[in-house]
Amino acid sequence: MHILIIGAAGMVGRKLVNALLRAGTVAGRPIRRLTLADIVAPEKPDFDGEVEAIATDLAHDGAAAALVGSRPDIIFHLAAIVSGEAEADFEKGYRVNLGGTHSLFEAIRRAGLESPYRPRVVFTSSIAVFGEPLPAVIGDTQCLTPLTSYGTQKAIDELLLADYSRKGFFDGIGIRLPTISIRPGKPNKAASGFFSSILREPLVGKPAILPVSETVRHWFASPRAAVGFLLHAAELDTGSLGQLRTITMPGLCATVGDQIEALRRVAGDAATKLIRREPDETIAGIIAGWPKGFDASRAEALGFRAETSFEEIIRVHIEDELENRAPERA
């Protein structure tokens, strides 16, 4: 098994690499080769098989063809310009999120013209493909109505994934990720970044800024769950997907207030007092158009699983990122 991960230097990409190495196999086949690609060269893991780490821009001419030339069996496409940056830099967002993805799909198609080639492609989409007006609970057949450039780019990618799969160029599956919280490391440029920072920073005694109201409701899953989604999608029998190739992943519907109360239960009042309310109209405006709750029964029936409480999400972060050292309650 040869696996290509595009976006391997990112948080989810790094965790996916580690999970693959722990598993050792995908769909019963041993992993013999890893190709890890990102805008900066990913770190090479300790791996008995062949591993290559490549710094590349998928949107550049020839970059996708070079990655596909080694004919990987499974391709995880995780790379993207995040929501806030895609909104602020219109051209960059379309160049990377749409142009890069289309280049990848075309490179796979062209490789198959030379000799038979049909890899599994696992593509990470986003719940940002949905925008107001929306029902309170959104099903998989909801029309795509994005209200941001990022959501529009992902929606187009979903249509391309379905069409290239329909034509048999590859075996594609898209997973619409919930907002991933708690993201480890430093804040990124995503409009949703505060959903992680208001928990991550107080857990280590640092202040955090809350730019929206505590009544804001959203859809969440942990990084651990996100990696589980990807691994399951790589092995899933896609025959049951039909033409609906992209699936909304399970998650937890919660308000910002629910997050803060879960933090209080785990880490005490001292942690929650580190959250400063500083309203930001731009971020609030972006978040206001995002969906708030989903019916993920289709994904659950296919075997995808996520957390069921924010306390569980916080404890996952403590286990995975803080070496299981919970902060002392004050």
General description of the model:
The chain is of the alpha/beta class and 330 residues long. The chain contains 12 helices and 14 strands. The chain has a 7-stranded parallel beta sheet, with helices on both faces. It has a 3-stranded mixed beta sheet with strand order 9-11-13. α4 runs parallel beside α5 (149-166). The radius of gyration is 19 Å and the shape is globular. The model has no long low-confidence stretch (mean pLDDT 94).
The total count of strands amounts to 14
Strand order of the largest sheet: 5-4-1-6-7-8-12
| Gyration radius from CA atoms, angstroms | 19 Å
Q: Portion of residues in helices?
A: 40-55%
Strand count, sense and barrel status of the largest sheet are: 7 strands, parallel
Overall 3D form: globular
- List the quaternary state of the chains: single chain
Work out the helix count. 12
- Strand % is 15-25%
Ends distance? 50 Å
Query: What's the helix-strand series?
Result: EHEEEEHEHHEHEEHEEHEEHHEHHH
Protein topology:
Layout (H helix, E strand, L loop, with lengths): L1 E5 L4 H13 L1 E2 L2 E2 L2 E6 L11 E6 L7 H6 L5 E4 L5 H6 L1 H25 L5 E7 L22 H18 L4 E7 L1 E2 L13 H10 L4 E3 L6 E5 L1 H13 L10 E3 L3 E4 H12 L1 H4 L2 E3 L3 H8 L8 H5 L8 H12 L9
Parallel strand pairs: 1-4, 1-6, 4-5, 6-7, 7-8, 8-12, 9-11, 10-14
Antiparallel strand pairs: 2-3, 11-13
Helix pairs in contact: 1-7, 4-5, 6-8, 8-12
